[in-house]
Structures are given as C-alpha cells and as structure tokens.
C-alpha cells in the first residue's frame, strides 16, 4: 500500500488530533504543496501551522452549522478554504 503524503511529516497521533477538517487540510497540503510542507517541516512550523488552521476550520465549520446550513452545505465552504492554495507545479 502506498504511503500517504502526510506520513512524511506527521505521526499518526498528530494527524488524528487534527480532526476531520484538519486532516483534509493536511492531506491537501502534503500531497499538492510538498515544497511548502518540506520547508515548514524543516523550520519546525508545519505541525503548529496545521493545528492552528485545523482549529480555525473547525470553528468555521461549527459557525456554518449554527447559521443553519446543513452538513453537506457547510462542507462545501470548508473545502473551499482547504483547497484555496493553488497546487505547486
């Protein structure tokens, strides 16, 4: 089985602690933004940055649901945030 891109940078425990929205972010960043992840990992900022962004996404997700959106509708807004950085060439 192929190694998931996040496994180069995160432990399973770190990955799991990110929550669903944070894991989506980690999957995208590590797969499609490898140069950025490599630089951040070398600087020791990747995990804290992912954690901070995961918390912000989770808060945003809760706000969307509390505003009356259904889960699938809220998830579309979350995906828009996650995939907002263009893929590296």
Structure overview:
The chain has helices spanning 12-17, 19-32, 34-43, 46-66, 71-82. The mean pLDDT is 94. Helix content is 71%, strand content 0%. Helix 2 (19-32) crosses helix 4 (46-66) and helix 4 runs antiparallel to helix 5 (71-82). It has 89 residues and is an all-alpha fold. It has 5 helices and no strands.
Structure, briefly:
By secondary structure, the protein is mostly helical. 71% of the residues lie in helices and 0% in strands. The mean pLDDT is 94.
Index terms:
globular, 5 helices, mainly alpha, 89 residues
Mean pLDDT: 94
What is the molecular shape? globular
Class by SSE composition: mainly alpha
SSE pattern, N- to C-terminal: HHHHH
Proportion of residues in extended strands: under 5%
Helicity range: over 70%
Number of helices: 5
- Distance from first to last alpha carbon: 25 Å
Quaternary organization: single chain
Low-confidence stretches: none
Query: How many β-strand runs?
Result: 0
Q: How large is the radius of gyration?
A: 13 Å
The largest sheet, given as strand count, sense and whether it forms a barrel, is: none
What are the SSEs and their pairings?
Elements: H1 12-17, H2 19-32, H3 34-43, H4 46-66, H5 71-82
